[in-house]
Specification:
Helices cover 34% and strands 29% of the residues. The chain is an alpha+beta fold.
Amino acid sequence: MKRRDLEKRLRHSGCYLKREGGAHSLWINPRTGVVEAVPRHAEIKEPLARKILKSLHAE
C-alpha cells in the first residue's frame, strides 16, 4: 500500500499526525488515545498497513 493512501485512510477515520520522527511518523486516534508508528517509506507492506489500521481502529 502506498504511504499516502494509508495516511488518507487514517485521516478519513479521524486520526491525525502527532509528530514526525527520523524513520517513523506517529499517528494518534483521539477517540481511543492509541498512538501508532507509521514507517516513512513510499511503499508499506500490506500486513503492516492492516495492523496499523486495526490498531488505530481505522478499518
